[in-house]
Amino acid sequence: MNLQEQWQLLQNKSLLAPELSAEAIREAIRRDSQGPIHALQRALRVRLFFVGFFLAAGGILVGLSWPNAQLMMLAGGMLGYYLLAGGITWGQLLVLQRSAGLDRNLRQTLEIYYRVIRRAMLLDEIIGLFMYPIAIGIGFFYAQVQHGDPIVDVLQNPRDLLILLVVILVISPFLHIFTRWANRRTFSNYLAQLRQNLELLR
Amino acid sequence: MAIIRMTLEQEFVKLVQQHAGIIFKVIQLYVDHPEERRDMHQEILLQAWKSYANFRGHSAFSTWLYRIALNTVLTFRRRQRLPTADPPPHWDPPAPGGAAREESEWLLQAIRALNEVERIIITLHLDGYSNEEIATITGLNRNATAVRLHRIKQTLTTTLQKWSNRSSEKI
Q1: ipTM
Q2: Partner of B104 for a Cys bridge, out of A9, A133, A172, B111, CB 3.0 to 4.6 A?
């Protein structure tokens, strides 16, 4: 028996689809997607929520810092950083929204998914690299200046400077490495799966 | 707006019901885990619905749905490992009178032992798609599709022959 005949037999036996009710279809199209891009979108929306929260907190802090110029500058720095993080996250969400469609050809789809996930990981790691030192540095200075020490005094105090250096040189890289590790743990198998199929399509 | 959506939805439901076999077939060929099969089925329907507004009818609905189903399955994060090229150990030789059915089951098993791209090429071919259509769906060029298809058919024939010989020895 040739392959075509065997295939026809299969279509009438093991591959014969059970009847699909209209209700089942309607229920399926109303649920949330479980796909990786949508999972990423959900994670970014959560990040955007926190960025919004910190932006509001930064705004309140700027208000409370009035009329201390140094405190306002520090709170403004925090506000600026979170505005940047919010902008990047928003941009990522837009890219994901454009990439989520699955009606392209297979190679294009796999390439887009691979690129988008890689870029999201990279941005997450870069934001992670700068986020912690900036947040910690600004927070540290803010606390010291609020106690009445001008920034110049804080920078000239060896104990304060040492604390700041330890935070920036030890804790920040550790948190960055942790972000990297968590991302690889979450996505490395998936990226390998995409890469493997892209190789097969070359 | 709501009326347009309802009409679109009704149209979509009807078309999907007519071509439900495509989704079922793709899932049978790519997903092992029963729970994952259910999730994947719903995910394909959802992805098809999300893209349906962009469906312009440049290709047949069945071709478009095949493309969405394959793209969804291949971009979904999967839990299970790929099957191996050996026939399952619990498989008995074909029963008298049931040989034809068994042979076709072997074809299913042999297809599932191919890599994911080869599986797409051969199933589309067996479903009557031309090399050009297969190339359009996969993103391969037409020559590469033809060469691969030839190789896949040889692999399948050899594998099925080997399994058939093995089961004849058992009898």
Answers
A1: 0.84
A2: A9
Nearest by CB to residue B47, choosing from A1, A20, A102, is: A102
Q: pTM (2 decimals)?
A: 0.83
pLDDT tens, position by position, B65-96: 999 999 999 998 766 554 444 554 444 444 44
Alpha carbon of B133: minimum distance to chain A alpha carbons (Å): 11
Structure tokens at A53: 């929260």
State the nearest Cα–Cα gap between A47 and chain B, in angstroms: 22
Residues B113, B70: Cα–Cα separation, whole Å: 17
Instruction: Choose the closest CB to A201 out of B107, B140, B156.
Output: B140
Rg (CA), chain B: 18
Measured between beta carbons, the chain B residues lying within 8 angstroms of A22 are 13, 17
Q: Tell me whether residues A9 and B104 touch, CB distance under 8 A.
A: yes
- Say what the pLDDT of residue B170 is: 64
Give how far Cα A189 sits from Cα of A200, B70, B85, B102, Å.
Answer: 17, 19, 22, 35
Q: Could A17 and B21 be called an inter-chain contact, meaning their C-beta atoms sit closer than 8 Å?
A: yes
User: CB of B119 within 8 A of CB of B30?
Assistant: yes
φ and ψ at residue B130, rounded to 5 degrees:
-75, 165
Spatial CB neighbours of B39, under 8 Å, sequence gap ≥ 6? A34
- Rounded to the nearest angstrom, the gap between the alpha carbon of residue A46 and the centroid of all alpha carbons in its chain is 9
Show the tokens assigned to A110.
Answer: 């796999």
Q: Which residues of A7-22 are buried (b: 16+ CB within 10 A; e: fewer)?
A: bebbbeeebeeeebee
Contact yes or no for B104 and A6 at CB 8 A: yes
Q: How far is A97 from chain B (nearest CA, A)?
A: 12
Give the number of other CB atoms < 10 A from CB of residue A62. 17
Per-residue H/E/C for chain B? CHHHHHHHHHHHHHHHHHCHHHHHHHHHHHCCCHHHHHHHHHHHHHHHHHHHCCCCCCCCHHHHHHHHHHHHHHHCCCCCCCCCCCCCCCCCCCCCCCHHHHHHHHHHHHHHCCCHHHHHHHHHHHCCCCHHHHHHHHCCCHHHHHHHHHHHHHHHHHHHHHHHHHHHHHC
Q: What's the farthest any 2 CA atoms get from each other in chain B? A: 66
Nearest CA in chain B to A16: B21
